Amino acid sequence: MLIAVSPALGFGILYGLRTPMLYGALLAVMVASLGLGLVSGNLDLGLLTLQATGISAMLAEGSRRSWSGPVTLLACFAFLVWTFVLSIYLVAGADFVTWYNGLMDALGKELESALRQYGQISGSEKELERWLPQLKKELTRLFPGFFGLSLAAISFVNVSVAALVTRLFWGKSCFVPNFEQWKFPEALVWFVIAAGALALFGPGGYQNLGVNALYVIGFFYFIQGLAIANFLIKKMRMPWYVKWPVYILILIQWYGLLMLALGGLADVWIDFRARFEPEENGDDRPD
Fold first, then answer.
1. Does residue 39 form part of some domain?
2. Which of 37, 41, 202, 242 shows the smallest number of beta carbons within 10 Å?
């Protein structure tokens, strides 16, 4: 879980260094930690270091090239996906299916054990026994999507924290525009169309691939929908004791999350914020 926050904090603190010095500091940390991992035989430490340092480098490169927050988020996400694919290849090799089935069996046993304990405590053991096979089936089917969601969430946290920390330490955010103006590249919508086609019409396992891809891509449009909601709330100048309950009510309801994601997707064609006057620069995060 260190990669959830530490790269953004480290980058934010070092943000004022010249670019070569910043990359040199990141490289020194990566080499030292990888060496420690190899010497101790703890390859997990090496992978964690590679991911944390890589995210920091993505944040630095995004700032240097003036990437927007959404583009930097996508770059961090792509890097995390690459590192996990690489680690899986190193562990499983070409026999990925066997490795994945073994992982699902292990997760299924953990789920079964936890549900049995809960059933014994709550007295609903028989009912849980009836639902257990379906739960294990859905776990196997949707695990890649949920795992991808976790990587996307880690990327979002890092970009958001980096923007906040650089503003606090150095007086300006490393990414523009501000959060309420975030908009993902329009080309992303083609991935939605392709994933939706696979989910609806794909043969066999390709349907599962499409469903899992929609979960992950939907998260990005949820973030865009949240940015639109933040823009509109600021535009209406809601007091804090009104807007925070609004945020909470939206985020604790599944249909609120779905509405934000659909709103973010519709923004590709409708461009909600263009219908209002541009806002002055504000915070880099929803408030």
1. no
2. 41
